[in-house]
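Weekly sync, protein design subgroup
Attendees: M.S., D.O., the rotation student, P.L. (late)

Item 1: inverse folding check
M.S. brought a backbone from last month's batch and wanted to see whether the design step gives back something sensible before we order anything. D.O. pointed out we never logged the input encoding, so this time it goes straight into the notes. Structure tokens as presented (349 positions):
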């Protein structure tokens, strides 16, 4: 009898440990994320290439088989969450978090938008040390980007068992599109996302075209700079002395990179900026060419060579993003709406 009891306890412990691991089946992985109302968290992930399935449910609590009535009234320790099944060969955990941050207010510790209470708080549930490290680094990057005036308080906690919500909650944005749309707007979430991220709420919108397409659409110089890391001549390029108001986007992917509001006359003969317009669209890499260590700047989605970053710029950042005109396309303020960048118009009001 004692042997059976011990065996049962060991079996329960093993099952509990398995529940907190990120399931891997046929190459698939699982991420569990709490972003307030789960109705609003399914659609953004289901649109991403590499995501296989998204389920609304409850996570992070101790109670077994919680119901919507219990969770929504704050009678459990669970929070509304989504379980994202994805193919790590097509999309990474880090990329899922990039989408996650753009759907929530990570500075709100009392709920999300109109939904108040602990059961609407935000959280990233990690299944192992690797996911924990990725989540913490992603959170640090968001804080360093300076998007928010308040501290990022989204919790990063060990995964517990996930319980799917009732069937009528699944794909609610499709089953009840009119009510879902009214709720997302009325709750304040839609307006918040647009205000903070503009049209950047959905990473994956910008991508690098096939190389054959690039060779047929870019000039020889543009291709050589963006794809082969070349440098254009100073004082003999398109935007070094451009004084128009607007934004600069990647010539390859179209992702927003810099604003005329942050452009300054550096005297170098290349367009120079004190900071990026959208920090997540900029990647910094160490460049050891020519026997000098420099910081190369590339675009995130287009992987275009943009230029280099130096620490000799003016206030408020003290930085100088020295960028090749050949890697950029300029969108004037009166063209922002027409060309799909209307979310940035308010910057120039």
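Designed sequence read out in the meeting:
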């Amino acid at each position: 009898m004692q042997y059976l009891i011990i065996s049962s306890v060991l079996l329960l412990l093993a099952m509990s440990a398995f529940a907190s691991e990120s399931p891997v089946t046929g190459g698939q992985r699982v991420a569990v994320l709490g972003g307030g109302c789960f109705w609003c968290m399914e659609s953004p992930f289901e649109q991403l290439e590499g995501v296989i399935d998204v389920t609304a449910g409850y996570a992070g609590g101790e109670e077994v088989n919680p119901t919507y009535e219990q969770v929504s009234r704050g009678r459990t320790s669970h929070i509304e969450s989504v379980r994202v099944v994805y193919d790590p060969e097509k999309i990474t955990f880090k990329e899922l978090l990039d989408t996650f941050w753009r759907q929530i207010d990570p500075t709100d510790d009392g709920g999300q938008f109109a939904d108040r209470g602990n059961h609407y708080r935000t959280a990233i549930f990690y299944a192992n040390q690797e996911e924990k490290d990725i989540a913490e680094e992603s959170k640090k990057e968001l804080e360093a980007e300076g998007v928010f005036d308040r501290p990022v308080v989204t919790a990063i906690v060990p995964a517990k068992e996930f319980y799917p919500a009732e069937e009528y909650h699944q794909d609610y944005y499709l089953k009840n599109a009119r009510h879902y749309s009214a709720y997302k707007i009325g709750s304040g979430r839609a307006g918040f996302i647009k205000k903070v991220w503009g049209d950047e709420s959905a990473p994956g919108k910008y991508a690098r075209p096939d190389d054959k397409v690039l060779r047929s659409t870019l000039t020889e110089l543009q291709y050589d700079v963006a794809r082969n890391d070349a440098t254009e001549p100073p004082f003999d390029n398109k935007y070094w002395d451009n004084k128009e108001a607007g934004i600069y986007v990647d010539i390859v992917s179209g992702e927003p990179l810099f604003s005329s509001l942050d452009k300054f006359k550096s005297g170098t003969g290349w367009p120079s900026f004190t900071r990026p317009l959208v920090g997540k669209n900029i990647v910094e890499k160490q460049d050891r060419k020519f026997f000098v260590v420099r910081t190369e700047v590339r675009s995130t989605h287009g992987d275009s060579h943009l230029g280099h970053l130096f620490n000799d710029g003016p206030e408020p950042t003290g930085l100088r993003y020295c960028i090749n005109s050949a890697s950029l396309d300029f969108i004037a303020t009166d063209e922002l709406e027409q060309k799909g960048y209307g979310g940035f118009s308010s910057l120039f009001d």
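Discussion: The mean pLDDT is 88. The first strand starts at residue 29 and ends at 35.
Action: P.L. to compare against the previous round before Friday.
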